[in-house]
Prior knowledge:
Helices cover 73% and strands 0% of the residues. By secondary structure, the chain is mostly helical.
Amino acid sequence: MDWLIAAVLGVVQGLTEFLPISSSAHLRIVGEFLLPGEDPGAFFTAIVQIGTETAVLVYFWRDIVGIVRSWCASLVGRREKGDPQVRLGWLIILGSIPIGVLGLAFQDAIESVLRNLWITGAMLILFGLILGIADKVGPRERGLEHMTWKQGLVYGFAQAMALIPGVSRSGGTIIAGRLMGFTREAAARYSFLLAVPAVMASGVYGLFQSIGEPMVLGWGPTILATAVSFAVGYVVIVAFLRFIQTRSFAIFVWYRVALGLVLFALLGTGMIAAV
Length: 275
């Protein structure tokens, strides 16, 4: 049974990681039904996210290799620091700092208090509405080559908000990108690239923290969930980037609000527990 549960959670992770609807919220909610009274855990979530971030590495392989090569070359004077690829490398490093610092500083709260489903429901609705507003009022002409250092830092803090289940890492960064005038595609692509260092670091940290600790799901099922999340996540990346070329984020706004209201109803009737 653990293997089936892990496979389902892997599918959920793959489907929701790159969409602005919060993968951590979905894992938390679905996990409540599959494992009544037991939270799959923040570390399970972190480890399984390695699968979806590997999908990012595969899909954006050329972009990532180009950025890393240019950034490394700039350190030895073989590339100008003003080179767009070099600059993007530094911006990703800058944007990764907030989530790392805040994640460590508030680790206990993130793994306990902030996983309360009442908070998750509120964040789904609140940031869903903000996403809708940002998508409508944000200009649509700016590309990643126009990003400033200040905007890179704003992106970083937007990503850090995803430490609260229900906010969504991609949702937070896409909201920030749209409000700062970036196109939908640019905001989404940067959201994927910015997530790689933070999520990979979180997954590795969770891996080491979990060694010797009891797990709700064993290592075998967890590895299965990670592999499934990779396969499903890759398909979602392709589909999502095509979708936003011609469509708005409205469908995700309505979905988030509806899910938040359903979650409140389930909690209010006692069908699921908040913690």
